[in-house]
């Protein structure tokens, strides 16, 4: 004895199934059109978010580099002070040398510390140049960040405006699509979703047009066209796999 569910499914004619599938396709196609209206804005907003985050990281790294170079500069200045103190001490000792050996030793120490001062001063100049260069890059990054942030704000507003205009409409259509899905048997709905996912334009159900599939436009044999018009079974295109329906179901006049 057939269950209530089986009996209900048996009572649903193929024509009704095709009609429900076409309605569902129409609702989902309308949602697709709304998404197209939004265009590339969601992707552009996401890309800008990523760019801004990257710029923030870059600017932070510049600041860390500058801080490190300033620390290195401070260290070199400390070395200069130490070397100058030693030079002063050695020069005083040179005034009281007792022999040439001691004189040579102290002279070499003075020479060494003098070279150390010169080396530290050279490094300080190099660090200064690096800091100046990094500051230029940092200023450029900040300028780009400012422009990108302004652009992001503009695009977010533009996206919000479009979403607010279409959100209510999309929600109503989604509710209709959900109700229509509930009227379609599970296996048929799964097949529909699979076909739609693989279809380039999201069309899983198409009317025949001038003897051809409305999806891929390949010609359909006359006998198969007759079967589609009779609406006694669900027929898919042998080329693209879409479900084909009689144009009248889609409200299209063949003339």
The proportion of strand residues reads under 5%
- Strand order, main sheet: write it out: 1-3-2
Helix content: over 70%
Number of helices: 6
Poorly predicted regions: 1-9
End-to-end CA span: 47 Å
Summarize the structure.
By secondary structure, the protein is mainly alpha-helical. Helices cover 75% and strands 3% of the residues.
Question: What features would you highlight for this structure?
Answer:
single chain; 255 residues; mainly alpha; Helix Hairpins; 2 domains; 3-stranded mixed beta sheet; 6 helices; 3 strands; 3% strand; rod-shaped; disordered N terminus
Question: What features would you describe in this structure?
Answer:
With 255 residues, this protein is mostly helical. The protein folds into two domains: 4-35 and 185-250, Helix Hairpins (Orthogonal Bundle); 41-179, Helix Hairpins (Orthogonal Bundle). The chain is built from six helices and three strands, in the order H-H-H-H-H-E-H-E-E. The protein has a three-stranded mixed β-sheet with strand order 1-3-2, sandwiched between helices. A hairpin with a 6-residue loop joins strand 2 (235-236) and strand 3 (243-245). The longest helix has 82 residues, at 100-181. It is rod-shaped, with a radius of gyration of 40 Å.
């Amino acid at each position: 004895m057939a269950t209530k569910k089986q009996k209900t499914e048996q009572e649903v004619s193929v024509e009704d199934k095709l009609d429900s599938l076409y309605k569902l396709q129409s609702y989902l196609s309308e949602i697709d059109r709304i998404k197209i209206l939004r265009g590339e804005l969601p992707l552009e907003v996401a890309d800008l978010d990523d760019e801004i985050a990257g710029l923030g990281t870059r600017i932070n790294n510049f600041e860390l580099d500058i801080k490190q170079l300033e620390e290195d500069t401070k260290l070199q200045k400390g070395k200069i002070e130490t070397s100058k103190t030693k030079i002063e001490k050695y020069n005083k000792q040179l005034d009281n040398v007792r022999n040439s050996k001691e004189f040579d030793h102290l002279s070499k120490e003075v020479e060494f510390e003098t070279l150390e001062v010169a080396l530290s001063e050279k490094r300080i100049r190099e660090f200064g140049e690096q800091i100046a260069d990094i500051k230029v890059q940092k200023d450029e990054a900040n300028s780009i960040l400012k422009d990108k942030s302004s652009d992001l704000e503009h695009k977010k507003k533009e996206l919000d405006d479009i979403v607010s205009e279409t959100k209510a409409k999309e929600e109503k259509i989604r509710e209709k699509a959900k109700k229509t899905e509930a009227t379609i048997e599970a296996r048929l709905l799964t097949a529909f979703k699979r076909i739609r996912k693989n279809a380039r334009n999201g069309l899983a159900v198409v009317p025949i047009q001038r003897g051809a599939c409305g999806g891929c436009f390949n010609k359909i044999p006359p006998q198969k066209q007759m079967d589609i018009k009779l609406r006694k079974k669900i027929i898919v295109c042998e080329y693209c796999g879409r479900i084909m329906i009689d144009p009248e179901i889609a409200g299209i006049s063949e003339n």
